[in-house]
């Protein structure tokens, strides 16, 4: 979505405005962009700077006041145009590692202000020297007479000879095939692997389909799960990018030229395939190989209900029901459904498997499960989804013996009874403590589900604790805690209303 600008593995480097404008929005969140700033510019473009630490003093003061006014640390503020004008090069914040960042850096974007569409910054003449062509690392072949999620691709060894990538003759055991590649782009003098800008697939010198990453909205970004082989990647394999548009993926970054990228082999001739990969500087790499039809494999007969992209898919029995909206699936597949006995002392239903976590789901889909615990616990029922070590929880809404929640990933689903309040554990802090030498107070708050509503009150007034990356809740001493004796109350509530409270007296 933009450029991740290295900061020499350091935080608190100065971040400055890219051009004249005004600070239009600030967001603070535990994940995603963390602490971010958007600047609107007179040319109807917006620049975004993310994963920041402290803002410049005036902006930091304003944001803090808004957080206390709204009594929330997580915040999104639209700022009037006249409050924080900036000139090109003005200091706006310190770089950091906040939110969904895995190391110190600054994420930078250029957007169309009116549409919020993200534009490729490398199309704006960035001062980055690049005369290095993209590298093509892998070629994968798919049998498109069946779902891409019900096969493993066949990988073809490629070599680079006299500047062109080549592969041996591909003999296809299907009359419908498609291709995917792994490729990276690098700048001159850098070993960082970046995404590629453009790829075009041609058959017998006729362009078939291509994709180009020039602009995209955040509403479209989840389609990356259709652009790559999601199943392959989620099972520990490499990233490969489809050179075909899956049936449930609108054109988006793809441009259908003479088809969607599925090649039909309706003769025994040898067909010449070319893949052209470019970066934004025009540096180009070519992959050329030939393909012919071989002995057609008879598809393996699979059991189970078929699920199709582009239509609503419904499943129901006496204990569970779900439906997938028409824009949920990218390719057709057989439903993988299984029921096993409860494996949890707090279980309120069996475990139901709906597909696997390696099948991508584009939107949230509702699941309804009948409880085995009766109605006595109806306000304490949580639906748990899990797969391959990843867990999601949602409060289940009661509906005449059934409980409903929505998720955006497949896997195992089960109802559980949650009567356990969160736990609150202070870090280096205790009741009755003299905090004169402390710079901050921290608490670890955990729950058997993920959703925690945290509130801190100092002498009866809301106190701002940060919670970057959903880790510790931290308060850094400031003017909101003057010298003297204080009472600090910590309140933590989970998604079904279980509450934990702790009160501490301390001196500063």
Topology:
Elements: E1 3-6, E2 14-16, E3 21-28, E4 35-40, E5 45-50, E6 52-55, H1 57-70, E7 75-78, E8 85-86, E9 91-95, E10 105-112, E11 118-119, E12 135-143, E13 154-156, E14 159-161, E15 164-166, E16 170-172, E17 176-184, E18 198-203, E19 206-212, E20 215-216, H2 224-227, H3 230-234, E21 241-242, E22 254-256, E23 263-264, E24 271-278, E25 284-293, E26 306-307, E27 313-316, E28 320-324, E29 333-334, E30 337-340, E31 351-354, E32 365-370, E33 381-387, E34 390-395, E35 397-399, E36 402-407, E37 411-417, E38 423-427, E39 433-434, E40 440-446, E41 452-458, E42 461-462, E43 473-476, E44 485-494, E45 499-507
Parallel strand pairs: 15-25, 16-25, 39-45
Antiparallel strand pairs: 1-10, 2-9, 3-4, 3-7, 3-8, 4-5, 5-10, 6-9, 10-11, 11-20, 12-13, 12-17, 14-15, 17-21, 17-23, 18-19, 18-24, 19-22, 24-25, 26-29, 27-28, 28-32, 30-31, 31-37, 32-36, 33-34, 33-37, 35-36, 38-40, 40-43, 41-42, 41-44, 44-45
Number of helices: 3
Mean pLDDT: 95
Poorly predicted parts: none
The tally of strands reads: 45
Helical content band: under 10%
Amount of beta strand: 35-45%
Please tell me what the overall shape is. flat
Number of domains: 4
Which class of secondary structure composition applies to the elements? mainly beta
* Main β sheet profile: 9 strands, antiparallel
